[in-house]
Design a protein that fits this description.
Strand content: 5-15%
Number of helices: 6
Number of strands: 3
Order of helices and strands: HHHEHHEHE
Shape: rod-shaped
Helix content: 40-55%
Structural class: alpha+beta
Distance between the termini: 58 Å
């Protein structure tokens, strides 16, 4: 079998349908035990884009840093957010700083933080 040049291979790929090309990529990944990943654009903004993407979180922790003056209200909110029993919620509030929710979506973390702040607690979202 003759070795094909890069141009010859590209010409062959041009003749393939998207489905055929997709099947080829899957077969290539299986045969050589690799994964085809999307290339990151390089250029003046390239490193900044990569750093920005690395910093963007999709999971957040809601940490109770203090109960404030309305401890009973904070315990009620903690119970609603976590489904903990009364004793467990009280222990969590008394032992602040402690995480109330871990690895939740940004929207859920913000809602929980607002609810806790509304009850008078000091909250941190990480």
């Amino acid at each position: 079998m003759a070795k094909l040049s890069q141009d010859d291979l590209l010409a062959q790929f041009e003749e393939m349908t998207l489905i055929e090309l997709s099947e080829f990529v899957k077969a290539f990944e299986d045969k050589f035990d690799v994964t085809a990943a999307a290339a990151v654009a390089a250029g003046p903004a390239g490193p900044a884009v990569v750093a920005e993407a690395a910093e963007e979180q999709d999971e957040f922790d809601v940490i109770l840093t203090g109960a404030g003056d309305k401890k009973i209200q904070v315990i009620k909110v903690v119970r609603e957010l976590t489904s903990l029993g009364l004793k467990e919620a009280k222990d969590l509030v008394d032992g602040a700083p402690k995480p109330v929710l871990e690895k939740v979506a940004k929207e859920a973390a913000e809602k929980a933080a607002e609810a806790l702040k509304g009850a008078g607690a000091a909250v941190e979202v990480k």
